[in-house]
Specification:
The chain is α/β, with parallel strands linked by helices. It has 15 helices and seven strands. The strands form two sheets. Strands 4-3-5-7-6 form a five-stranded mixed sheet, with helices on both faces. It has a two-stranded antiparallel ribbon with strand order 1-2. α2 links the parallel β3 and β4. α3 packs antiparallel against α8. The radius of gyration is 28 Å and the shape is globular.
Length: 415
């Protein structure tokens, strides 16, 4: 009898070991990768202590770090109520690589508090648990780490100063955008995309599809699956849209309206998803507006974005469009002038001006055209400069600013 009991116990132990081995095979490799040494806090809670049901999407019991977010009863966010104070605290969060040149920040914005994360250096003071998901991992890491001591305004920006996806009318210059951004506007809206121009990203951008990727949007083929994982209680929208490229501002109140555990869950999704760094980052590029506004598409009129956000107020959409028409005309003239200068015959015009016998009719016409183009460019530059100065002047008047953006304004209101 004693030998039989020993045999039974031994059989039970073998069964337990086999079950544990099988269970470990179900866990994705990324699931067992912990934060880097010296990195972000490990918020994984013992699964045995969890009273939550198993999360079958992953094939193992859910912990506080892994489970899907709780069902949200909020269908929208309330507008913030800006105070009359002009001393809002600000922090700019920057994802960067070791080789990025970020000296411009201290030079151009010396008074701004900055939180710089080095994605590819696990020994850096601030670094994400894994270099994946582009800026997403770092943005979420900042919110998780600083949730209990946030500033009034958070600016989530890329590390380069000049780039094509910064605002054209602010010189494509991140430092100009940051200086011009209205804190009051951010507090009122809660979430503000730092890019005003619709292309690319608006009015419709990502659509869930099971076919081949379209227009190079590889992320469309996995959008539906990702949505079910990230927002399991929310209906799948017909499309997602906002101006590119994952640079935005948040108010403290808007960040705190979402539980910290939700940010932990989203970061864990980036860590665990088998999707590539590129695809996982692209999914989030057009999901931030939904997370912070509940709008699947958030395409603010360009003139409103420039006016309410940055104090460049042309007086409405029509004068704003007219400014761009004149700017486009100037660009066309400049391009034509460049082509004439590249003409071999045109390159000799200066030396031939005193010898009419050797100047062909086409060369003369090119000389006249070049003179005309230069004159028109100067006229347009003067007109555009005057229009911009007037737009900036209008932007200093909070009443005009509110009027252009369709907001109610009372005496004493700020921007």
């Amino acid at each position: 009898m004693h030998a039989k009991r020993i045999t039974q116990v031994f059989a039970i132990l073998i069964a337990i070991v086999s079950l544990a081995t099988f269970h470990s095979l179900l866990i994705p490799h990324s699931a067992v990768e912990g934060p880097q040494s010296g990195g972000l806090e490990d918020t994984i809670i013992n699964a045995a202590a969890s009273t939550q049901p198993a999360d079958l999407r992953y094939g193992y019991p859910a912990t506080d770090y892994e489970r899907a977010p709780e069902r949200s009863t909020a269908t929208s966010f309330l507008k913030g109520s800006p105070s009359n104070s002009f001393n809002h605290s600000r922090v700019m969060v920057i994802p960067s690589m070791q080789d990025d040149d970020i000296k411009w920040i201290a030079r151009e914005l010396p008074a701004l508090d900055v939180s710089i994360y080095i994605a590819d250096n696990p020994l850096a003071l601030r670094h994400p648990p894994k270099n994946k998901g582009h800026e997403v991992m770092i943005y979420l890491s900042y919110l998780i780490e600083n949730y209990n001591h946030l500033p009034d305004i958070m600016l989530f920006m890329h590390s380069h100063r000049w780039t094509h996806h910064n605002n054209h009318l602010l010189g494509f210059d991140a430092s100009q955008m940051i200086r011009a951004l209205s804190d009051t506007h951010v507090i009122r809206e809660g979430y503000v995309n730092m890019r005003c121009h619709w292309s690319p990203g608006c009015p419709e951008w990502l659509r869930p599809t099971t076919g081949q990727d379209t227009l190079g949007k590889q992320e469309e083929t996995v959008l539906e699956r990702c949505w079910r994982e990230l927002f399991p209680f929310d209906p799948l929208p017909s499309f997602l849209a906002q101006p590119c490229c994952a640079q935005f501002a948040l108010s403290k109140a808007r960040v705190l309206s979402i539980p910290r555990s939700r940010y932990v869950f989203y970061r864990d999704w980036i860590l665990r998803t088998p999707l590539s760094d590129y695809i996982s980052g692209r999914i989030w590029e057009y999901s931030w507006q939904y997370l912070f506004t509940k709008d699947s598409a958030r395409c603010v009129a360009e003139h409103v974005c420039y006016c309410d956000g940055f104090g460049v107020c042309f007086g409405g959409e029509v004068p704003y469009r007219h400014y761009w028409e004149r700017l486009d005309q100037k660009t066309k003239y400049a391009e034509e002038l460049g082509h004439i200068r590249e003409d071999p015959a045109a390159s000799q015009m200066t030396g031939l001006q005193g010898n009419n016998d050797t100047i062909s009719g086409s060369t003369v016409r090119n000389m006249d055209r070049r003179k005309y183009l230069r004159t028109q460019i100067k006229i347009l530059e003067a007109e555009l400069d005057a229009r911009m100065r007037e737009a900036q002047r209008r932007g200093t008047d909070p009443r005009l600013r509110a009027e252009e953006c369709g907001r109610l304004w009372r005496d004493g209101d700020g921007f």
